[in-house]
Design goal:
This protein is of the alpha+beta class. Helices cover 23% and strands 27% of the residues. The chain starts with 8 loop residues before the first helix and ends with a strand.
Length: 371
């Protein structure tokens, strides 16, 4: 990404009405490989995933998502380490999406099965100036195919395509279409606090029933599916919040327990910019949860979030992967629609990944280098 494609500090600071994202948004010289510091806006985080699987007289196995998104401007995976009493442990990478996971297996009769994985990542806030087109890198034919194709929960035909065409009627450029879909998502969906986890992302059902509520894996998946149906590359980015927001939004931080801080974002490929970060689901989260709660869409905090989250992300969040319909190695169970929560299996089948207390996993994070 060239220099003029980055978001101007003054623009982002003004839209937020908060401290400038100066070090984060401005391109800087590269850091030495595997020597992360807080210089040039980079922050270093360690995410620890501890799984305490139920003891059983049957084989037990778990799959722990690992950060696997390496992007020179905003996310660099430093490495992973683990400890525990598993009989076999290996890191496995999905060949289609590059999603990486740690697969641990215990023999029958193992007392107190446990695995603890520490993942280290450095991040930097993202921001693009969409008023100043630049020269984007070329998206490979393989990636264009991958990020425009349908998945089980993201069809690109029927009501999805019909809806996308209505939303973008009159729009001629990919930027206009991408923005029209974003605005439609923000205006027509809402965050449902009763949705389990981050939601499922069954966008056909959402459109057919007219129930456009849910959480991030629903609302941002709807964006991705609508964009793909028009041939615009888009992808879900599954990850987890690991720190509070530094820019005044209480609703956009880890909110205490990282075990429940998973968050799905989205990116859309625009010809003059490359991958553009967006997050319409977080706009609806601000409206619902930002103190005092239940903010109208014209509230300044919501208006600011809406403006910023088409083209920028605060990177108090680690990216796991872009995967859909993932086969868990060694499992005879169903594919995972996405990999953002630890998964596990025992005698009675798949554990409930959305129930940390019942499954018995805890996630914690710490910033290892101050900004």
């Amino acid at each position: 990404m060239n220099r003029r494609s980055f978001l101007k500090t003054s623009t982002l600071a003004a839209s937020l009405g908060l401290p400038a994202w100066a070090r984060a948004a401005a391109p800087q010289s590269s850091l030495p490989e595997f020597a992360p510091t807080a210089a040039n806006g980079w922050r270093s985080f360690e995410l620890t995933s501890r799984i305490e699987a139920p003891a059983s007289d049957a084989p037990t196995q778990v799959w722990v998502p690992l950060p696997s998104v390496n992007e020179a401007d905003w996310s660099r995976v430093v490495g992973n380490s683990w400890q525990g009493n598993a009989k076999q442990v290996e890191i496995v990478t999905d060949p289609k999406y590059g999603a990486t996971m740690l697969h641990a297996q215990w023999a029958p009769g193992t007392e107190a099965p446990v695995i603890e994985v520490a993942s280290r990542v450095v991040t930097r806030d993202r921001g693009l100036d969409l008023t100043n087109p630049g020269r984007a890198p070329v998206l490979s034919a393989a990636d264009r195919t991958l990020y425009t194709h349908a998945t089980k929960l993201l069809p690109t035909d029927g009501i999805v395509l019909e809806t996308a065409r209505k939303i973008t009627q009159g729009a001629t450029t990919d930027v206009e279409k991408a923005r029209a879909i974003y605005d439609w998502i923000v205006d027509n969906t809402f965050r449902n606090p009763k949705t389990r986890g981050c939601g499922l992302g069954d966008i056909r059902t959402m459109l057919e029933t007219g129930d456009l509520s849910g959480k991030c894996a629903d609302l941002n998946a709807l964006y991705v599916g609508l964009a793909r149906s028009l041939g615009i590359p888009a992808r879900d980015v599954y990850g987890i919040r690991v720190a509070d927001s530094r820019y005044g939004y209480k609703s956009l931080g880890k909110s205490g327990d990282v075990s429940k801080a998973q968050h799905c974002r989205a990116e859309v490929w625009l010809s003059q910019y490359g991958w553009v970060p967006i997050d319409p689901a977080d706009v609806r989260k601000v409206a619902l949860e930002e103190p005092p709660g239940g903010l109208p869409m014209y509230d300044p905090k919501v208006v600011s979030a809406r403006k910023v989250l088409f083209g920028a992300w605060e990177m108090n969040w680690l990216a796991y992967n872009f995967g859909h319909d993932l086969a868990l190695p060694g499992s005879e169970g169903p594919e995972a629609p996405y990999l953002m929560y630890p998964q596990g299996e025992g005698r009675d089948g798949r554990f409930d990944s959305l129930d940390p207390a019942g499954f018995r996993y805890t996630l914690t994070s710490k910033e290892t280098t101050g900004a």
